[in-house]
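Histone deacetylase
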Amino acid sequence: MLAYTSDRFVLPLPPGHRFPMSKYALLRERVAALSPHIRLDEAPEASEAELLLAHSPRYVTAVLQGLLSPAEQREIGFPWSPWMAERARRSVGATVAAARAALVEGVAANLAGGTHHANADKGSGFCVFNDVAVAARQMQAEWHRLQAQGLNVLVIDLDVHQGNGTAEIFAEDDTVFTFSMHGARNFPFRKVASRLDVDLDDGCEDGPYLAALDQALAQIEQRWWDGRPALAFYLAGADPHEGDRLGRLKVSAEGLAARDRRVLSWLGERRIPVALSMAGGYGHDIHTTVALQHHTLELAAQAWAAWRS
């Protein structure tokens, strides 16, 4: 299975910053050491034209040329620097490349990504550009050049935080079905309606979590099967885990693995290619977060093998 990395492109953060930048290199190193069946490739840089498919010209220019206001930088949570802009472009490029690979091979992944709080004209919550939104629009453009019909897209967002930016970008777009299952009382505190939202109470454990996911997948099939998706994006956040600093849920490692198997099996049975993004993960122990995300990638590689068998 192909997986794209961008951890060589990092931005300097002040001491004590709560974003776990080091987890990306740790994840790549773990995959390289333990998963020879996952083919690592460096993420390409998203082009300005690709970014403009989901973001306003003013915002793209502000990020690329260092024109973000102090208030915009505070909302993103990162100080601007050339490295910040480069990392954001690479994170998007990784998801674009993973989506392109998934359409050929069935399953592919970005070892970062899941920047679902960025909307068309601003970033937020450690999200500069919205990688899934850009990749969905780019794949639709490429598909349109080759196929008579359009490309319907499904976004399965299981990060613990609601995908408000993705929901806003696609609010008027019937070709993209956005589904988010998240903590009801967690960030962002002003939610933007997805096509399907599932709010979870603080402390939600494995049983209720998995039951809610099963019900949601059944609803997706009922509500959009006439417009069957030809590509899915799966934001496989590790932050619903019981050991996450920001998650507020109580899902175990076994529960997250069951979640991933359900999603990947559901997509595989319906022959819907999927590009994964690792999305959030802010564990008290960063190595626990890395292990959870590595297990997600291992399950994705199994789904890739099953797709090709």
